[in-house]
Design brief:
The protein has 97 residues and is of the alpha+beta class. It has a domain at 38-67. It is built from two helices and two strands, in the order αββα. The protein has helices at 20-25, 53-71; strands spanning 40-43, 50-52. It has a two-stranded antiparallel sheet with strand order 1-2.
Length: 97
């Protein structure tokens, strides 16, 4: 199966000074507005649960805020966090013991 980018996406000059989330979610880099992106981008095969890009962004931000609070990482903290978690769209680190 061949996947093609929509007509508005041009990846001739991929920026190297932005974060991956900024590149994925910012309209400045050629994506359509999140409000118009209502198709599922992740689907859990066993349960059938699906997530839109907006939902994925909300979950990512929630995880980042939770990690920041748990690790007491203040402004200017420039650390790296590694996560070991199941490859499942429904997994929540807080539920794992």
């Amino acid at each position: 199966m061949v996947f093609k980018a929509h007509a508005g996406l041009h990846l001739d000059n991929i920026p190297d000074d932005v974060t991956v989330p900024e590149f994925l979610f910012n309209e400045k880099y050629g994506r359509r507005p999140l409000s118009q992106s209502n198709r599922a981008v992740m689907i859990d095969a066993p349960s059938g649960a699906s997530f839109t890009l907006q939902h994925l962004k909300e979950r990512m931000e929630g995880l980042a805020k939770g990690l920041k609070a748990e690790l007491k990482a203040g402004e200017g903290w420039n650390g790296v966090i590694g996560l070991f978690a199941p490859n499942n769209v429904l997994s929540r680190p807080s539920e794992r013991g």
